[in-house]
Amino acid sequence: MSDTRDRRDEIQQFVERTEGKVYPRRVFMGMAAAIGLAPVAARLTPAMADAKELVIVNWGGDAVKGMQRSWVDPYLKKYPDRKAVIDGTGPSTSRIRMMVDSKKVAWDVMDRNLHTALEIGPEGMLEPIDYSIVNKSKVRPEHAVEWGIGNYIYAMVLTYNTKKWGGMVPQNWADVWDVKKFPGKRAFRREPDGQLEAALMADGVPYDKIYPIDMKRALDGLKKIKEHSIFYTVIADGQNAFRNGEVHLGLLLNTRAWPLKQDTKGLYDWTWNQGISWGACWMVPKGATGGRAIWDFINVALEPEGQAELLKTNGYGPINPEATKLLDAEWNKVNPGAPENYAKMLPGGIAWYAKNATKARQDLIDALAG
Amino acid sequence: MLSANRQEASRHGAYWLIVLPALLMLALLYFVPLGNVLLTSVTDPKPGLQNYGLLFTSTSVQKALVTTVRIAAITTFFALLLGYVVAYAMRAASTRTQRFMLVGVLLPFWISVLVRSFAWIALLGTQGPLNSALVAWGLVDEPVALVRNETGVLIGMVHIMVPYAVLTLYANMRGIDVGLVAAARSLGASRFQAFRMVFLPLTVPGLIGAGTLVFILSLGFYVTPALLGGGKVLMIAEYVAVQINDTLRWGLGTMLAATLMIAVLGCLWALSRVIDVKRLFGA
Amino acid sequence: MNRLQPTGIVAALAWFILSFLALPAFAVIPISFTDTRYLSMPEEGLSLQHWRTFLSSPQWLGSIWQSLWIAVVSTVAAVIAGTLCAVGCWRIASSLSDKVRGLMILPMAVPTIVYALGLYRLYVDLDLVGTAFGVVLAHTVTGLPYVVLTVSASLSNLDPRLEQAARGLGASLGQTLRYVIVPNIVPGVLSGAIFAFIHSWDELVVVIFIGGRALFTLPRRMWDGINDNLDPVIAVVATGMILFTLLVLTAELSLRARRTN
User: Fold this and answer.
1) Are C142 and C206 in contact, with CB atoms under 8 Å apart?
2) Which residues of C touch A26 (CB under 8 A)?
3) For a surface tag, which of A236, B59, B84, B272 has the fewest beta carbons within 10 Å of its beta carbon?
């Protein structure tokens, strides 16, 4: 008997030392079975322990800490007998498809955006949101769709140098396109969402005529400004280009424009005017095994308290308008979900992107290349 | 005679045996899973060869391919040129100097490709120290755009590839009997003649090996062009990554991968026609 | 006389090129001492805060160790298999063995992301997703081409009659390899080893796809949250590696000097 216990300790230590990851589980189980300890091994390998854990997937970095504090902790407080963990490795479309195709779905709920949900949901990649449990009245109607429900608001905003042009600052995209009035390098993202809208607004298209997007007109606009611009692929790199003085105006996410303003002590600022607002959202991969816990978690994450908290820690705009009331005037200045800011912006056309994102991205990339 | 043949065969048999581990690993862990995915190129979105048709009809695909080959070729040229000078100097230097040079060649490896790109932006950007110096010395009026364009991509890629070229060339040069060069000199050849007529021809296999390595690696660059190209230089690896990461058009992405693979195989084959294969890979 | 006589110009050019290679290090080292919270040159003064973060972070140190041993194991495996393969092909020197060698370097030509998709499918079946063992296997296979290529280039200057002579004198295959062939191709084997090591050390895409949620090698740690911030810790890691290399070299050189004295 004592022999068995010793061996069990050995296995325990082995698993701890290796986090159960050094050897493939199958090999490990085989080894354990060979020395007659299969049941013990089964209890010790993490793969088994994880079975009932809710896995929330986001993009890593500060978002892991922020979402843990604002959403996961309150969820675990409300349901003390449950488990949840944040996986910050990024739910890219490729990884979602790979996992869904493999029929072994380890993820339960993913942090993406509404237009992606509408794009890949009908392709069989997602479970529809169960609105018999999820309370959609907590968000604006445009933020609750069949394949996803909003979790926070982000915006693409006109960001500019406040001192470069002798007190004059760009007010709208037409100014950004005016290289005589505002000389200097521009920055945009090398993605269609936001840049196409900005180009159309610069060309005088009113909000209600932006969608469906006239691709030719939008790309012609971008080609006009191309020589004077850089197009970043890594968002922090775009922020970096502003900060080190490479670029003087352009488009940046509000979550990056705010730290930029702080880091440069106000040398850079942004305007909500003609910003483009988007709903980040929860979506659930087809075949997710979390069941009821998924919807319970989403409901907790929509509560105004956690929503307001995440603005303070990460700059994510509360998607629940109620959260605005929990924030003072100073915080609401940086809140894209505050009604006065939200009203200034164009809500991004998620239905249009759901149908056209792939082609629009390709056309944009081609227009910029070469 | 027969027994000699059999003996020869059995000796080769032993050599096939030592080829086998690598070959098996490659087959089971590379070609099987890869083949599995490449099938997607003829099944997604629907069965057929329409993805391959894009090679002939899509200007976007063609442009990315041309850009990639052009940039890879320029990178290979400069990496070989710079690498040859360093490898040659190393071959000629004392053991001690050689070691210092070797460290100089190896050090950049420790700075990840990602970090290197940001370092170039910091050094060569319009607000960077180099441009400040150029403007201060009055060499230029306006800062020069050295990054966020094709120039930046080339600087970054050549920098990454030079160590590969140096090490491959140096490995080859180490095996050369420099007594031959000395003999040529003693027969009255000038330094340059001795180099051109004796040393350079002996390094051709090294040049081809290094060139193949650098060119093939350059075809696959992704992070460097994305960061240093200002979003305007699209190479094929990034093109493939966009199709696979951001869209569901896996058929197009995998088609391009298959095309690259076939193209490289074709190039190697063509190379083996032009140059004696035995010189390309030794023997 | 067994040395080339370089002209001063060539040596000067070579040192100039080497200083070009060293340029990023001159940016990375000061950046690692930045007083800001983002990747930039120090603004108001030097700070050790990012060194402290790095040295006190089990995540960063854990990633370094993980990357290190994954790279070492996969390099050793790739070097052994790759060298044997290159030598075998060199000796056989038939059109079939030439084709084998061509095949061996194909993995360098295929965009990694496409391979990673296939590998994921295979690893789901084998239950290898999220295991370091799975990453080691993948890095071994994708490291092979480097070894085969550099060793082959090195063998190109070796006279095959050497091998025939050794075998003719009754040396076994193992002895021939150990005493005749390998000593003559050491530079090629070492270059291949360095390339294979760096390939694993810097490899991101395969790890993203098959690393599951727990396996964070160094490159993956660097990409983690890259959109939030360009964390100066990535400059600290690079600087640490440079200093470590220089330290090892100095130690070795002084040891040598003592021995020759």
Assistant:
1) yes
2) 126-127
3) B59
Q: What is the pLDDT of residue C250?
A: 81
- Asked: is A154-278+350-368 a CATH 3.40.190.10 domain? The reply is yes
Rounded CA separation B65/C192 (Å) = 29
Contact (CB<8Å) A61/C215: no
Contacts across the A-B interface (CB distance below 8 Å): 78
A24 at B interface, C-beta within 8 A: no
* pLDDT of residue B194 exceeding 70: yes
Residue A251 has pLDDT above 90, yes or no: yes
Residue-wise pLDDT for A153-180, tens only, equals 999 999 999 999 998 999 999 999 999 9
Taking the C-alpha atoms of residue A313 and residue A310, their distance in angstroms, rounded to an integer, is: 5
Give the homologous superfamily in CATH for domain A53-150+281-327: Periplasmic binding protein-like II (3.40.190.10)
Confidence check: pLDDT of A23 > 80: no
The count of structural domains within chain B is 1
Residue span(s) of chain A under CATH 3.40.190.10 come to 53-150+281-327, 154-278+350-368
Q: Mind listing the pLDDT tens digit for each residue in A313-349?
A: 999 999 999 999 999 999 999 999 999 999 999 999 9
Could you read off the pLDDT of B84-116 as tens digits, one per residue? Answer: 999 999 999 988 888 889 989 998 988 889 899
**pLDDT at residue A42 in the model:** 46
Give the domain ranges of chain C. Answer: 62-224
Residue partners of C35: CB distance under 8 A and separation at least 6: C42, C43, C44, C45, C46, C47, C49
Q: Which residue matches tokens 């099944």? A: B43
Structural domain including B222 reads: 63-250
Q: What is the ipTM of this complex?
A: 0.88
Measure in Å the smallest separation between the Cα of C46 and chain B Cα atoms.
17
Two structure tokens written together for C137 = 């296997």
8 Å CB contact of A233 and B126? no
H helix and E strand count, chain A: 18, 12
